[in-house]
Specification:
- By secondary structure, this protein is α/β, with parallel strands linked by helices.
- It has 4 domains: 73 residues; 104 residues, Nucleic acid-binding proteins (OB fold (Dihydrolipoamide Acetyltransferase, E2P)); 188 residues, P-loop containing nucleotide triphosphate hydrolases (Rossmann fold); 156 residues, Rossmann fold (3-Layer(aba) Sandwich).
- Strands 10-11-9-12-13-8-14 form a 7-stranded parallel beta sheet, sandwiched between helices.
- Helix 7 packs across helix 24.
- The chain is globular, with a radius of gyration of 30 Å.
- The protein binds adenosine-5'-diphosphate (ADP) and magnesium ion.
- The site of adenosine-5'-diphosphate (ADP) has 15 residues, from helix 10.
Length: 697
């Protein structure tokens, strides 16, 4: 086989620009860039996102109506057929050595442009009888005019593609260059890591993912690449954590058992075992000379606030300032109110700092923060604004931390001289997964709820039950309770037929709840108006709050007993769980009702939610079903993104990667040993952060 050479005749290197490769012109190089493939080396790491196992291909002649099967055949004729109802159908006839079959794609006339006569298609679908046998494709791959693609027993690699660069072109380019590129790659994982992980060496792994002889082999190659990704992320996390400890020595608080003990003795309830444990972990951290960077995970209602309050008081009794940052004004006020009541007997009066405070009051608070006075302040992101200066900030807590960007979280901590940091989240995830995602942080978990909570009754109701559901809500209001009704969108649009908050608000307020006080709340209403509405709801001036998910965070209105959610299939399970957590906060029995007709698959998913009120279990199901993006939101959450590994599916691999990273850093914390040079190089190339952490590159 001829060795493909860069067009210029120069030698090929891994960092040779992709545009020098044979078969890649300027247009394709542009398209490759969109896929993140810039160099020849990137091409090697552009790995298939799925495989078609052509070894299971059936002869066309063997297909019978009612069967499900995969065939490979050549297009011998094709065309667009209009139907009377205006639908245009693309049809092609495929032939292999055994026979012919018609394949039909209703509503996809555009395929006429991408499928040519003479192309070979791999089609998976079901066979029905329609003027003869007809294959209805579920999936297909155009293998082009590549004859060799039909070779039996091959596993076909399917690559992420983009406009102007089909997977099949990518495949042929990789295929053409694979043999000359592989020898250029040298192993960069240290021997001891590789053997402990029991994954293939890099050259083998890359060959396996691109040109597997079996599906099992492809998965083995993938495992190596997933492992290294998890291993690198763990290396960076662990290193960042140890640097933060060494270089930024924190404040060494003293456990004076003054304010904290008095708070504990005065509490109207007993701390749960989990609260006691978490508090102890936090106090130990704060009393050590190292700086605390800790994540407090706990389900909705597990009582995170009081734990943060103990930590804050420890700082205050040591003469420091403590700040608790929350995402909304309403939540800030709510926390401030509860804490003011709890701290009154201790003679501590917490401050409240929000954007809507009159300038004069804000100035007065700013003056106190800038003085040496020990104090506790609760506020919104107003706390991180430039004008806010702290003289002695010793502790910061960020509640509902996922609502803030990484930068805002850092900005608060930067307001002091290495204050101890506590992040709080109500999206609990399994411990091992949390270690992969938030590996820089230490972890405390509240896995227990305060006793005596009424369980929330969760029910799924079909559209046909709407009238009954609404009259149930009305009866609750009659008894003095309040209700939330939540919609997935603010306004109706032509693209979907979703019921929207705005229209439904009008319909409900003039129809079923004409006698009730109804209000509308969504994200496009401005923040101060939104807070005003929530305040009225809290003060029982509103019976029914028609809303979008803006209400999901932290709001505590114990008199609200109904959470009615429309189009529940549109929400993630964890999001539903947050919404449900808005009720069941008082002594009365509470209800969460999912209303609407949903697909059988969605119903299965929703049943998982209805059957449990364990946030950990729900988050796990959510991750499994919808992936990380949905759980952590599109917003930059500070959670690392993975190209190949799936931290949930690859949980066991992640644990191995973490253990390997720990061992390696124990023996060579700066990665300076000669045998780790390759590792340093690859880290430097792939992770910007590694530059500051290891001084590589
Ligand atoms: P979350 O973890 O969702 O932030 P909160 O801190 O808001 O939960 O606590 C929810 C409610 O439970 C509050 O009203 C709080 O006073 C109460 N609470 C917290 N800890 C306990 C406890 N140990 N026993 C009884 N009630 C508690
Ligand atoms: Mg909370």
């Amino acid at each position: 086989m001829a060795q493909p050479q860069p067009r210029s005749g120069q030698r090929l290197y891994l960092d040779t620009s992709i545009s020098y490769l044979k078969g890649v012109g300027p247009a394709r190089a542009d398209a490759f860039r969109r896929l993140g493939v810039i160099t020849a080396g990137d091409l090697l790491y552009h790995i298939p996102h799925r495989y078609e196992d052509a070894s299971t291909v059936a002869p066309i002649a063997s297909l019978e109506p009612g069967m499900h099967g995969t065939v490979i055949g050549r297009v011998i004729s094709k065309g667009i057929i209009p139907t009377r109802r205006g639908l245009r159908i693309f049809q092609a006839v495929l032939r292999d050595d055994t026979g012919m079959i018609e394949v039909s794609w209703p509503g996809q006339p555009f395929l006429d442009r991408t499928i040519a006569k003479g192309d070979t298609l791999l089609v998976t679908g079901s066979v029905r009888f329609f003027h003869g046998r007809q294959l209805q494709p579920r999936e297909f791959i155009n293998l082009g005019d590549d004859e060799s693609a039909t070779t039996e027993g091959r596993v076909l690699s399917v690559y992420p593609a983009t406009e102007g660069l089909s997977f099949k072109v990518i495949r042929s380019i990789i295929e053409a260059h694979l043999d000359s590129l592989l020898p250029l790659v040298t192993e960069y994982l240290p021997n001891e890591v590789l053997s402990a992980a029991a994954v293939p060496a890099i050259r083998d792994a890359l060959r396996m993912v691109h040109r597997p002889t079996s599906l099992a082999e492809a998965m083995q190659g993938r495992e190596r690449l997933a492992f290294e990704e998890l291993f690198f992320v763990n290396l960076l996390h662990l290193r960042a954590k140890s640097l933060a400890r060494e270089e930024r020595r924190g404040i060494r608080f003293e456990n004076k058992r003054d304010l904290t003990t008095r708070l504990k003795d005065g509490l109207p309830f007993q701390l749960t075992g989990a609260q006691t444990r978490a508090t102890r972990e936090i106090v130990a951290d704060m009393c050590s000379p190292r700086r605390m960077q800790r994540l407090l995970q706990g389900d909705v209602g597990s009582g995170k606030t009081i734990v943060a309050l103990f930590a804050a008081l420890l700082a205050v009794e040591n003469g420091y300032q403590a700040a608790i940052m929350v995402p909304t004004e309403l939540l800030a006020e709510q926390h401030w109110r509860t804490m003011t009541a709890l701290l009154e007997p201790l003679g501590v009066a917490p401050l409240l700092l929000t954007g809507s405070l009159p300038a004069r009051e804000r100035k007065a608070i700013a003056q106190r923060l800038a003085s040496d006075e020990a104090l506790l302040v609760i506020g919104t992101h107003a706390l991180v604004q430039d004008a806010t200066l702290f003289a002695r900030l010793g502790f910061v807590a960020v509640d509902e931390q996922h609502r803030f960007g990484v930068e805002q979280r850092k900005a608060l901590a930067a307001k002091g001289e290495a204050p101890d940091v506590l992040l709080m989240t109500a999206t609990p995830i399994p411990r091992s997964l949390a270690l992969t995602l938030y590996g820089e942080l230490d972890l405390s978990v509240l896995d227990e709820r305060p006793p005596g909570r009424q369980p929330i009754l969760t029910a799924m109701r079909a559209e046909s039950g709407r009238a009954r559901v609404l009259s149930f809500v009305d009866r609750q209001i009659e008894q003095g309770r309040q209700a939330y009704i939540v919609y997935p969108v603010i306004e109706e649009s032509e693209k979907t037929d979703l019921k929207a908050a705005t229209t439904m608000y009008e319909a409900l307020a003039s129809g079923p709840f004409a006698q009730r006080r109804v209000a509308l709340l969504h994200g496009r209403i401005d923040a101060s108006e939104r807070d005003a509405i929530m305040r009225r709801f809290r003060d029982r001036e509103i019976d029914v709050l028609v809303a979008t998910t803006v209400i999901e965070v932290g709001i505590d209105v114990p008199n609200a007993t109904v959470m009615l959610i429309e189009h529940p299939e549109r929400f993630g399970l964890s999001q539903l769980h947050q919404l449900r957590g808005r009720v069941g906060r008082g002594a009365e029995e509470s209800f969460c009702i999912l209303l609407g007709d949903v697909s059988p698959e969605a119903a299965d998913r929703l049943r998982i939610f209805a059957a449990t009120d364990d946030g950990f279990e729900i988050a796990r199901a959510d991750l499994r079903l919808r992936g990380m993006g949905d759980l952590f939101g599109e917003r930059q959450s500070g959670v690392p993104t993975f190209r190949i590994a799936d931290p949930l599916r690859d949980e066991a691999l992640g644990e191995r990667a973490r253990a390997a990273a720990e061992r390696l850093l124990e023996s060579d914390p700066d990665l300076v040993e000669g045998s780790h040079a390759g590792l340093r190089r690859v880290l430097g190339e792939r992770y910007r952060r590694s530059l500051e952490l290891f001084r590589v590159g």
